[in-house]
Amino acid sequence: MSKKVQYELEYPVRCSPGILFEFLSTPAGLQEWFADKVDFRDNVFSFSWNGSTEEEAEVLEQLPDERIRLRWLHAPKGEYFEFSIQISEVTNMTILTVRDFAEKKEVADQSQLWNYQIKDLFHRIGN
Predict the structure, then answer these.
(1) Secondary structure string (H, E, C) spanning the chain
(2) What is the dihedral of CA 48, 67, 86, 96, to 10 degrees?
(3) Are 125 and 15 in contact (CB under 8 A)?
(4) What average pLDDT does range 85-110 have in this prediction?
(5) Is pLDDT above 80 for 12?
(6) Residues 6 or more apart from 26 whose CB is under 8 A from it?
(7) pLDDT one-digit tens code per residue, 34-93
């Protein structure tokens, strides 16, 4: 089994950090773009797609309007995915950063999947 590598994707977004964070950290927000159904209980999100596939992710860290870090329950302890929000000092634009882990040869495919998901998020927030 090869070791996964961390990769990072950045997206400029025309949205306030508070509104964006709602879409990244609440069941209702995540259900708009990330999964078909999202539940939250005992610090664990349950995601389902196509009415059957279900995955669970625990919240490792959360700073309101700044960052949420989650770990799939089936993933090794050191792996996570994270959404972080910053304001560019140069452009004053909101920047969404996605950090995730993938096999080195799968980073491009996983990045493309995130690009598709984030495009759907931006559509939902009117970006």
Answers:
(1) CCCCEEEEEEEEECCCHHHHHHHHHCHHHHHHHCCCEEEEECCEEEEEECCCEEEEEEEEEEECCCEEEEEECCCCCCCCEEEEEEECCCCCCEEEEEEEEECHHHHHHHHHHHHHHHHHHHHHCCC
(2) -10
(3) yes
(4) 94
(5) yes
(6) 40
(7) 999 999 999 999 999 987 779 999 999 999 999 999 999 999 989 999 999 999 888 889
- The CA radius of gyration of the chain, in Å to the nearest whole number, is 14
Closest-CA residue to 66 (of 102, 9, 16): 16
pLDDT of residue 91: 86
Domains observed in the chain: 5-124 (3.30.530.20)
Q: At 26, give phi and psi (nearest 5°).
A: -120, 150
- In one-letter notation, the amino acid at residue 116 is Y
Q: Which amino acid is at 66?
A: E
Q: What are phi and psi of 49, to 5 degrees?
A: -125, 145
**Residue 100 pLDDT exceeds 80:** yes
